[in-house]
């Protein structure tokens, strides 16, 4: 949970882009040192940086996010280079003390496509910065960071530091119109917040900049603004509410010429090129496709690059359930499992990073199975223990002796109730027959030590796949069990995972006790 401090924000600030809106900082941000060489901007965080090859007579540089650009969010596909700028920021010392103002005279490079970065040239050299402020710039690492690496994220905006680790890399991360690649996933619990955008990700091992803090999923929504989603090579989308991400920065070092200037034409340069430069990748549109549930289907995607000797890799979104794409060959294959109508987008990318897409529709008929009657959940009242359920070990049990009796029978699912930061969940997949109406019902008892009548500190979110059906919280506390009902009509003809996910903040317990669940079709 995010800390309970209330930050007063003026009306003008509320109108600025998402990275500007200053929400409360999470409890993980507890350090008050480690802010050396960070630069506080009017809407974001930033850092004083240098390349591994920089010399003291070079102009100093300011690194932040592309979405922190003073001209506003940069549209997808746009790259800005060598633009006049008069941006200013406050250079901070180790404890967040102000050392003075630094000023840019040029935007060297900025984009929100494939990555999310903005790099400015300052009016002073590294040597002059050292003389004026007794501060040495952070060095951008020249290599890809390692999974599991320990790191800090110093936010000059909040004057706080997050201590985290890398939890893998995301091949494709999407948010609204923007797509990023090889994004850095943070460990669970490392939840940066608005205002930390542009903060450097600093290696705990050698104090080099290994990335830049970018975004996080606020509400659990799917691929929308402030709600990024992970997309794998087969087009499968994963959404994790509260998950935060950063972007790579070593890419800068792959594009430097002998004068230590960015040159996007250098072989192996990973930074995004402006539209109209580089190779052109063309994907042949295969046209509308049909398939049948339970019958194998294959479709070969054809694509080419204008560059010689290029190897293509393939990915896809929106494929029918049961189908995947081979990332090396572009062959879509598998056996459809769900009757549905969907639109797929296939992307082919060559070794220079140039890509092309093709979108086409699918109609999958048949399947769904079953009749429109009955209850579809297995072990709906938990009387067989955890059988047919997945999630937090030990959540399902007999809790009457601990003051949480079941509604009926002796078993129930008790989520949270610790009075400290915890996340617990249970889930089960269920098939809704095609052409049927379906309803999820369950009973929940909520008790809490929270005394507020206005703020939801502890929450239980009910989802069907990536769709949030509803959210309960400490504000819904009540004596005894209360019945809840949600429609599942939108999932007819599909197999969907129902999940009950609870999150509890750092103090004052809230218990969510579930019993007598049912998915009834008619």
TrEMBL record:
SMART domains attached to this UniProt entry: CADG (SM00736)
Keywords: Signal
Keyword flag Membrane: no
Domain Dystroglycan-type cadherin-like positions: 281-371
The protein's name: Dystroglycan-type cadherin-like domain-containing protein
SUPFAM superfamilies: Cadherin-like, Trypsin-like serine proteases
Organism field: Dactylosporangium maewongense
UniProt entry tagged with the keyword Signal: yes
Annotated coiled-coil segments of the chain: none
């Amino acid at each position: 949970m995010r800390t309970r401090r209330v930050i007063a924000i003026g009306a003008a600030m509320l109108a600025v882009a998402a990275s500007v809106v200053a929400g409360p900082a999470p409890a993980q941000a507890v350090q008050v040192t480690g802010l050396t060489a960070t630069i506080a901007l009017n809407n974001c965080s930033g850092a004083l940086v240098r390349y591994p090859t920089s010399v003291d007579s070079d102009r100093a540089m300011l690194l932040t996010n592309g979405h922190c650009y003073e001209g506003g969010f940069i549209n997808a596909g746009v790259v800005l280079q060598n633009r006049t700028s008069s941006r200013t920021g406050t250079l901070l010392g180790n404890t967040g003390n102000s050392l003075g103002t630094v000023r840019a005279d040029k935007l060297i490079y900025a984009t929100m496509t494939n990555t999310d970065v903005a790099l400015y040239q300052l009016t002073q050299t590294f040597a002059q910065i050292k003389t004026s402020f007794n501060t040495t710039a952070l060095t951008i690492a020249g290599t890809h960071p390692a999974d599991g690496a320990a790191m800090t994220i110093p936010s000059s905006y909040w004057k706080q530091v997050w201590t985290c680790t890398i939890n893998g890399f995301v091949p494709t991360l999407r948010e609204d119109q923007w797509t990023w690649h090889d994004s850095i996933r943070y460990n669970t619990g490392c939840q940066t917040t608005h205002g930390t955008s542009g903060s450097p990700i600093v290696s705990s091992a050698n104090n080099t900049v290994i990335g830049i803090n970018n975004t996080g999923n606020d509400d659990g929504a799917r691929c929308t603004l402030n709600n990024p989603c992970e997309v794998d090579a087969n087009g499968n989308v994963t959404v994790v509410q509260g998950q935060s991400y950063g972007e790579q920065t070593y890419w800068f070092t792959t594009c430097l010429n002998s004068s230590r200037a960015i040159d996007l034409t250098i072989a192996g340069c990973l930074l995004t090129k402006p539209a109209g430069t580089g190779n052109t990748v063309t994907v042949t549109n295969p046209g509308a496709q049909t398939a049948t549930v339970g019958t194998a289907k294959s479709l070969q995607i054809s694509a080419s690059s204008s560059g010689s000797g290029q190897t293509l890799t393939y990915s896809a979104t929106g494929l029918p359930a049961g189908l995947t794409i081979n990332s090396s060959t572009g062959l879509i294959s598998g056996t459809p499992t769900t009757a549905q109508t969907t639109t797929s987008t296939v992307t082919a990318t060559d070794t220079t990073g140039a890509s092309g897409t093709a979108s086409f529709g699918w109609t999958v008929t048949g399947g769904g199975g079953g009749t429109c009657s009955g209850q579809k959940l297995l072990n709906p009242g938990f009387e067989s223990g955890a059988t047919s359920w997945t999630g937090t070990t030990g959540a399902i049990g007999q809790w009457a002796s601990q003051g949480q009796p079941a509604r009926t029978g002796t078993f129930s699912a008790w989520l949270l109730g610790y009075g400290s930061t915890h996340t617990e969940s249970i889930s089960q997949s269920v098939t809704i027959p095609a052409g049927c109406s379906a309803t999820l019902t369950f009973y929940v008892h909520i008790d809490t030590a929270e005394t507020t009548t206005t703020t939801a500190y502890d929450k239980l979110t009910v989802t069907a796949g990536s769709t949030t059906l509803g959210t309960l919280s400490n504000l819904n506390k009540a004596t005894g069990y209360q019945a809840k009902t949600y429609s599942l009509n939108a999932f007819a003809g599909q197999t969907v995972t129902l999940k009950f996910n609870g999150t509890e903040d750092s103090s004052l317990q809230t218990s969510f006790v579930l019993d007598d669940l049912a998915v009834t079709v008619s």
